[in-house]
Specification:
The chain is an alpha/beta fold and 222 residues long. Helix content is 35%, strand content 21%. It folds into two domains: 153 residues, SPOUT methyltransferase, trefoil knot domain (Alpha/beta knot, 3-Layer(aba) Sandwich), CATH 3.40.1280.10; 42 residues. Helix 4 packs across helix 6. The chain binds adenine.
Protein backbone atom coordinates (compact mmCIF):
# COMPACT_ATOMS: atom_id res chain seq x y z
CA UNK A 1 0.00 0.00 0.00
CA UNK A 2 1.20 3.49 -0.85
CA UNK A 3 0.43 6.39 1.49
CA UNK A 4 -0.13 9.93 0.26
CA UNK A 5 0.30 12.62 2.92
CA UNK A 6 -1.07 16.00 1.85
CA UNK A 7 -0.25 19.28 3.59
CA UNK A 8 -2.62 22.10 2.65
CA UNK A 9 -4.49 25.06 4.11
CA UNK A 10 -7.64 23.86 2.31
CA UNK A 11 -8.21 20.25 3.42
CA UNK A 12 -11.89 20.41 2.39
CA UNK A 13 -10.94 20.69 -1.28
CA UNK A 14 -9.82 17.05 -1.26
CA UNK A 15 -12.74 15.46 0.56
CA UNK A 16 -15.31 15.37 -2.20
CA UNK A 17 -12.81 14.33 -4.85
CA UNK A 18 -11.21 11.49 -2.94
CA UNK A 19 -14.46 9.97 -1.79
CA UNK A 20 -15.61 9.35 -5.36
CA UNK A 21 -14.86 6.75 -8.01
CA UNK A 22 -11.86 4.47 -8.29
CA UNK A 23 -9.79 6.54 -5.86
CA UNK A 24 -12.41 5.85 -3.21
CA UNK A 25 -12.47 2.14 -4.06
CA UNK A 26 -8.67 1.98 -3.96
CA UNK A 27 -8.74 3.38 -0.42
CA UNK A 28 -11.41 0.91 0.67
CA UNK A 29 -9.38 -1.94 -0.79
CA UNK A 30 -6.35 -0.56 1.10
CA UNK A 31 -4.31 -0.23 -2.07
CA UNK A 32 -3.72 3.44 -1.32
CA UNK A 33 -4.08 5.57 1.78
CA UNK A 34 -4.66 9.33 1.70
CA UNK A 35 -4.18 11.56 4.73
CA UNK A 36 -4.96 15.27 4.47
CA UNK A 37 -3.44 17.64 7.04
CA UNK A 38 -4.26 21.26 7.75
CA UNK A 39 -1.06 23.29 7.75
CA UNK A 40 -2.59 25.69 10.28
CA UNK A 41 -2.37 22.91 12.89
CA UNK A 42 1.37 23.59 12.94
CA UNK A 43 1.09 27.32 13.71
CA UNK A 44 1.32 28.60 17.27
CA UNK A 45 -0.20 32.07 17.13
CA UNK A 46 -3.85 32.83 17.74
CA UNK A 47 -4.54 33.75 14.13
CA UNK A 48 -2.86 30.57 12.84
CA UNK A 49 -0.72 32.57 10.45
CA UNK A 50 0.85 30.69 7.54
CA UNK A 51 1.92 33.64 5.38
CA UNK A 52 3.72 36.97 5.58
CA UNK A 53 4.75 39.85 3.32
CA UNK A 54 7.73 39.35 1.02
CA UNK A 55 11.21 40.65 1.74
CA UNK A 56 12.15 43.16 -0.90
CA UNK A 57 8.54 44.29 -1.22
CA UNK A 58 5.79 43.26 -3.57
CA UNK A 59 2.04 42.87 -3.43
CA UNK A 60 1.57 39.20 -2.71
CA UNK A 61 1.94 37.18 0.44
CA UNK A 62 4.50 34.42 0.89
CA UNK A 63 4.02 31.16 2.77
CA UNK A 64 6.23 30.95 5.83
CA UNK A 65 8.77 28.18 6.32
CA UNK A 66 8.17 27.42 10.04
CA UNK A 67 4.74 25.70 9.89
CA UNK A 68 5.76 23.77 6.77
CA UNK A 69 8.99 22.64 8.42
CA UNK A 70 7.14 21.46 11.52
CA UNK A 71 4.42 19.71 9.53
CA UNK A 72 6.88 17.82 7.34
CA UNK A 73 8.98 16.76 10.31
CA UNK A 74 6.04 15.53 12.36
CA UNK A 75 4.47 13.64 9.45
CA UNK A 76 7.86 12.10 8.63
CA UNK A 77 8.21 10.95 12.24
CA UNK A 78 5.04 8.82 12.06
CA UNK A 79 7.14 6.10 10.41
CA UNK A 80 10.78 5.28 9.87
CA UNK A 81 10.51 5.14 6.09
CA UNK A 82 12.01 8.54 5.15
CA UNK A 83 9.32 9.53 2.62
CA UNK A 84 10.02 11.80 -0.35
CA UNK A 85 8.71 15.36 -0.08
CA UNK A 86 7.05 16.67 -3.24
CA UNK A 87 6.36 20.35 -3.59
CA UNK A 88 4.19 21.95 -6.27
CA UNK A 89 5.36 25.05 -8.05
CA UNK A 90 5.07 26.32 -11.64
CA UNK A 91 8.88 26.50 -11.54
CA UNK A 92 9.17 22.76 -10.92
CA UNK A 93 10.09 19.86 -13.19
CA UNK A 94 7.33 19.10 -15.68
CA UNK A 95 5.18 16.22 -14.40
CA UNK A 96 5.25 13.29 -16.83
CA UNK A 97 4.00 9.71 -16.89
CA UNK A 98 7.53 8.44 -16.21
CA UNK A 99 7.70 10.47 -12.96
CA UNK A 100 4.33 9.02 -11.94
CA UNK A 101 5.67 5.53 -12.64
CA UNK A 102 8.75 6.11 -10.48
CA UNK A 103 6.68 7.62 -7.66
CA UNK A 104 4.25 4.68 -7.76
CA UNK A 105 7.09 2.52 -6.38
CA UNK A 106 7.36 4.64 -3.21
CA UNK A 107 5.90 3.55 0.11
CA UNK A 108 4.90 7.02 1.28
CA UNK A 109 5.00 10.48 -0.28
CA UNK A 110 4.45 13.86 1.39
CA UNK A 111 2.87 16.51 -0.83
CA UNK A 112 3.16 20.18 0.09
CA UNK A 113 0.51 22.38 -1.53
CA UNK A 114 1.54 26.02 -1.76
CA UNK A 115 -0.96 28.87 -1.91
CA UNK A 116 -0.86 32.63 -2.24
CA UNK A 117 1.78 34.16 -4.45
CA UNK A 118 4.56 31.86 -3.41
CA UNK A 119 6.41 29.86 -0.81
CA UNK A 120 9.56 30.92 1.03
CA UNK A 121 12.37 29.71 -1.27
CA UNK A 122 14.08 27.94 1.66
CA UNK A 123 11.24 25.38 1.64
CA UNK A 124 12.04 24.54 -1.98
CA UNK A 125 15.77 24.56 -1.35
CA UNK A 126 16.02 22.62 1.89
CA UNK A 127 12.80 20.68 2.48
CA UNK A 128 11.58 19.48 -0.91
CA UNK A 129 13.07 16.41 -2.60
CA UNK A 130 11.12 16.93 -5.81
CA UNK A 131 9.57 20.13 -7.20
CA UNK A 132 6.82 19.48 -9.73
CA UNK A 133 4.87 21.61 -12.16
CA UNK A 134 1.82 20.15 -13.90
CA UNK A 135 2.10 22.58 -16.80
CA UNK A 136 3.17 26.01 -17.95
CA UNK A 137 0.36 28.00 -16.42
CA UNK A 138 -0.16 29.43 -12.96
CA UNK A 139 -2.84 28.04 -10.68
CA UNK A 140 -3.92 29.47 -7.34
CA UNK A 141 -2.24 26.69 -5.41
CA UNK A 142 -0.89 23.16 -5.30
CA UNK A 143 -4.18 21.44 -4.47
CA UNK A 144 -5.20 20.64 -8.05
CA UNK A 145 -1.64 19.53 -8.95
CA UNK A 146 -1.70 17.20 -5.89
CA UNK A 147 -4.95 15.63 -7.10
CA UNK A 148 -3.58 15.27 -10.64
CA UNK A 149 -0.38 13.62 -9.44
CA UNK A 150 -2.13 11.33 -6.92
CA UNK A 151 -4.64 10.14 -9.50
CA UNK A 152 -1.92 9.48 -12.09
CA UNK A 153 0.16 7.50 -9.60
CA UNK A 154 -2.83 5.60 -8.21
CA UNK A 155 -3.97 4.22 -11.54
CA UNK A 156 -0.49 2.74 -12.03
CA UNK A 157 -0.86 0.63 -8.91
CA UNK A 158 -1.90 -2.90 -9.84
CA UNK A 159 -5.53 -3.63 -8.97
CA UNK A 160 -6.59 0.02 -8.64
CA UNK A 161 -8.09 -0.09 -12.11
CA UNK A 162 -8.87 -3.75 -11.61
CA UNK A 163 -7.13 -5.02 -14.73
CA UNK A 164 -3.50 -5.79 -14.27
CA UNK A 165 -3.06 -6.74 -17.92
CA UNK A 166 -4.31 -3.31 -18.88
CA UNK A 167 -1.19 -1.82 -17.32
CA UNK A 168 1.13 -4.45 -18.82
CA UNK A 169 -0.26 -3.73 -22.24
CA UNK A 170 0.05 0.03 -21.96
CA UNK A 171 3.26 0.76 -20.06
CA UNK A 172 6.11 1.22 -22.53
CA UNK A 173 9.70 0.04 -22.02
CA UNK A 174 10.82 3.47 -20.87
CA UNK A 175 7.92 3.60 -18.39
CA UNK A 176 5.81 5.94 -20.45
CA UNK A 177 2.27 5.08 -21.43
CA UNK A 178 0.71 4.32 -24.77
CA UNK A 179 -2.67 5.85 -25.53
CA UNK A 180 -4.52 4.91 -28.70
CA UNK A 181 -7.97 5.71 -30.12
CA UNK A 182 -10.76 3.41 -28.94
CA UNK A 183 -14.20 2.60 -30.27
CA UNK A 184 -17.24 0.73 -29.06
CA UNK A 185 -20.67 -0.13 -30.51
CA UNK A 186 -22.33 0.95 -32.75
CA UNK A 187 -20.13 0.03 -35.68
CA UNK A 188 -21.68 2.83 -37.70
CA UNK A 189 -23.10 5.93 -36.06
CA UNK A 190 -25.39 8.02 -38.20
CA UNK A 191 -26.35 11.29 -36.49
CA UNK A 192 -28.31 12.36 -39.55
CA UNK A 193 -29.24 11.16 -43.01
CA UNK A 194 -26.22 10.71 -45.24
CA UNK A 195 -23.65 10.95 -42.45
CA UNK A 196 -21.96 7.77 -41.35
CA UNK A 197 -19.22 7.74 -38.72
CA UNK A 198 -17.61 4.34 -38.92
CA UNK A 199 -15.31 2.28 -36.74
CA UNK A 200 -12.03 1.51 -38.57
CA UNK A 201 -12.40 -1.84 -40.32
CA UNK A 202 -9.22 -3.31 -38.87
CA UNK A 203 -10.63 -3.15 -35.35
CA UNK A 204 -13.54 -5.33 -36.38
CA UNK A 205 -11.37 -7.77 -38.38
CA UNK A 206 -10.36 -9.94 -35.44
CA UNK A 207 -6.77 -9.90 -36.76
CA UNK A 208 -4.82 -9.22 -33.58
CA UNK A 209 -1.49 -8.61 -35.31
CA UNK A 210 -3.02 -6.00 -37.58
CA UNK A 211 -4.94 -4.43 -34.70
CA UNK A 212 -1.72 -4.11 -32.73
CA UNK A 213 0.00 -2.48 -35.73
CA UNK A 214 -2.91 -0.07 -36.13
CA UNK A 215 -2.79 0.88 -32.46
CA UNK A 216 0.95 1.46 -32.64
CA UNK A 217 0.53 3.66 -35.66
CA UNK A 218 -2.32 5.74 -34.24
CA UNK A 219 -1.23 5.69 -30.62
CA UNK A 220 0.63 8.37 -28.77
CA UNK A 221 3.39 7.65 -26.33
CA UNK A 222 3.14 9.80 -23.26
N1 LIG B 1 1.13 26.02 -8.45
C1 LIG B 1 0.61 26.98 -9.21
N2 LIG B 1 0.63 26.65 -10.50
C2 LIG B 1 1.18 25.41 -10.58
C3 LIG B 1 1.48 24.52 -11.63
N3 LIG B 1 1.23 24.82 -12.90
N4 LIG B 1 2.05 23.34 -11.32
C4 LIG B 1 2.33 23.02 -10.05
N5 LIG B 1 2.08 23.83 -9.01
C5 LIG B 1 1.50 25.02 -9.27
Amino acid sequence: MITFEIITIFPEIFKCYFKESLISKAQKKELIKINVYNLRDWTDDKRKTVDDSPYGGGLGMVMKIEPIFKAINEIKSFKKDNPKVVLFTPRGKKFKQKIAYDLSKEERIIFVCGRYEGIDERVLKHLADIKLSIGDYVLMGGELPAMVVIETISRLIPEVIGKENFLKERITNDKGFIEYPQYTRPEVFSPEKGIYWKVPKILISGNHKEIEKWRKKHGKKI
